């Protein structure tokens, strides 16, 4: 299954290091080339000789061990298809999250441009420490995959969360990332997210409840699968791919159009305001004695419709947010907008849609075919949508 692949395993200094001997065997059984590097502390728990025998490769520990024309951390990084750090201690997690490169393993991580998976293992109080959790979040936001530790009896005598995840789970995740990474390589995908903001005056605006989570999940998944990803969003996000922060519908249209020509696909998950205030006040509007206030609104450009009108080879995908008659309205909307796919979701439900971590959608294509994806985490829904578009 893994012929031709090189898995680089980084072992850090935790008691779970002994379990990695079996993990190396699992990768070897699938014909992977396994390279192992250890932090000096890891060798307190497992010997270099054992790891060398199991991986059938020299094991790296010190940064300046083998004089070569290429610095050692760069050659390891170039050779591997994926890096897996297991067990990942709180110490190494902290270093990686802060860009510290004080040993061979952390230097390789800093130079590594392919997927990196971390399988943390530590005492439960360390795992729950807010600084460790912040570091984990930071790494996730920067594209690292985390195989979360499990709950149970720990080597230190505590009962809690911190035990290295089951080896099968770590192995499966590595294979999944290795294989899915390839699918969208070479594709350029633009995704929009969040609710646009239309100013009334310098302190007030018109917007909606979109959190940007659905678009973000799509962008994360596209990136995971190897696409050159551009996320155009109204929210603040830090990601390892290109993100463009915008405010109004007009800003969003400009940003989408800047990359549209060379894109393979555009997915409009943003909730774009249909109207904006005709005359935005330059200064804060004053309260008057009148009991009512009338704002005059003008139509915003329909970004999706305009993209569909000028598209050549691009796949253009819209979303359809409805609070009633979902299917009927979606059937009408896909024709009206002229898009290749339309993802319909019911925004009247509290357990899906706006701001929720979950969604349930019906995917329509332009031939009239429809497919329901039952309620699931937005990450799963994103995967299914990309599967539908790219097979
Ligand atoms: O952000 P979350 O909290 O995760 O919530 C996700 C979501 C509910 C916002 C998302 O799943 C969703 O449904 N997004 C589309 C919202 C929307 O604007 O739907 P619509 O039916 O009004 O518009 C149809 C399509 O036209 C959408 O793709 C929209 O981006 C696009 N549009 C709309 C108006 C406009 N002026 N220009 C557009 O391009």
Radius of gyration: 25 Å
Helix content: 25-40%
Mean pLDDT: 94
Distance between the termini: 21 Å
Structural class: alpha/beta
Number of helices: 13
Bound molecules: ligand PMT
CATH topology of the largest domain: Rossmann fold
Overall morphology: elongated
Number of domains: 2
Number of strands: 20
**Strand order, largest beta sheet:** 13-12-9-14-17-18-19-20
Low-confidence region ranges: none
Kindly estimate the percentage of residues that lie in beta strands according to DSSP: 15-25%
CATH superfamily of the largest domain: CoaB-like
CATH architecture of the largest domain: 3-Layer(aba) Sandwich
Q: Can you tell me the CATH class of the largest domain?
A: Alpha Beta
The biggest beta sheet reads: 8 strands, mixed
Keywords:
Rossmann fold; about 400 residues; eight-stranded mixed beta sheet; single chain; six-stranded parallel beta sheet
Question: Could you please describe the fold and organization of this structure?
Answer:
This protein is α/β, with parallel strands linked by helices and 391 residues long. The protein folds into 2 domains: 6-179, Rossmann fold; 188-390, CoaB-like (Rossmann fold), CATH 3.40.50. It is built from 13 helices and 20 strands. It has helices spanning 20-29, 48-55, 72-79, 90-97, 104-111, 124-128, 130-141, 167-183, 213-224, 249-260, 303-310, 326-337, 378-390, and strands spanning 6-11, 33-38, 59-60, 82-88, 116-120, 145-146, 150-153, 159-163, 188-193, 198-199, 205-206, 228-233, 242-245, 265-268, 275-277, 297-299, 315-322, 341-346, 358-365, 370-377. Strands 13-12-9-14-17-18-19-20 form an 8-stranded mixed beta sheet, sandwiched between helices. Strands 3-2-1-4-5-6 form a 6-stranded parallel beta sheet, sandwiched between helices. It has a two-stranded antiparallel ribbon with strand order 7-8. Helix 2 (48-55) links the parallel strand 2 and strand 3. It is elongated, with a radius of gyration of 25 Å. Bound molecules: ligand PMT. Ligand PMT binds at residues 210-214, 249, 268-272, 274, 300, 302-304, 318-321, 345, 347, 353-355. Ligand PMT binds next to helix 9, helix 11 and strand 17.
């Amino acid at each position: 299954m893994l012929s031709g692949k090189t898995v680089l395993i980084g072992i850090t200094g935790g008691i779970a290091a002994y379990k990695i001997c079996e993990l190396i065997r699992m990768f070897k059984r699938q014909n992977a080339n396994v390279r192992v590097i250890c932090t000096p502390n890891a060798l307190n728990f497992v010997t270099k000789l054992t790891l060398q025998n199991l991986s059938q490769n020299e094991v790296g520990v010190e940064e300046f061990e083998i004089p070569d024309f290429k610095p050692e951390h760069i050659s390891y990084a170039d050779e591997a298809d994926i890096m897996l750090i297991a067990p990942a201690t709180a110490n190494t997690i902290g270093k990686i999250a802060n860009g510290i490169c004080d040993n061979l393993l952390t230097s390789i991580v800093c130079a590594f441009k392919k997927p990196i998976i971390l399988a943390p293992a530590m005492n439960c109080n360390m795992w729950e420490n807010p600084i460790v959790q912040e570091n984990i979040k930071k790494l996730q936001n920067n594209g690292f995959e985390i195989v979360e530790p499990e709950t149970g009896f720990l080597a230190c005598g505590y009962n809690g969360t911190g035990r290295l995840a089951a080896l099968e789970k770590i192995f499966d995740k590595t294979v999944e990332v290795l294989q899915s990474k390839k699918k969208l390589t070479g594709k350029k995908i633009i995704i929009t997210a969040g609710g646009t903001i239309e100013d009334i005056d310098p302190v007030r605006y018109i917007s909606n409840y979109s959190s940007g989570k659905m678009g973000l999940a799509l962008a994360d998944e596209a990136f995971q699968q190897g696409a050159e990803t551009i996320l155009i969003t109204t929210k603040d996000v830090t990601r390892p791919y290109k993100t463009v922060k915008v405010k109004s519908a007009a800003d969003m249209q400009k940003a989408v159009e800047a990359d549209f020509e060379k894109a393979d696909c555009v997915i409009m998950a943003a909730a774009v305001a249909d109207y904006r205030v005709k005359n935005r006040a330059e200064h804060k509007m004053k309260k008057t004695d009148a009991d009512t206030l009338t704002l005059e609104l003008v139509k915003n450009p329909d970004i999706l419709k305009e993209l569909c009108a000028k598209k050549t080879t691009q796949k253009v995908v819209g979303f359809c947010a409805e609070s009633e008659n979902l299917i009927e309205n979606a059937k009408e909307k896909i024709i009206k907008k002229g898009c290749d796919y339309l993802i319909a979701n019911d925004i009247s439900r509290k357990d899906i849609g706006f701001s929720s971590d979950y969604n349930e959608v019906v995917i329509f294509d332009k031939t009239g075919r429809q497919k329901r994806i039952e309620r699931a985490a937005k990450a799963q829904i994103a995967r299914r949508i990309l599967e539908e578009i790219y097979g």
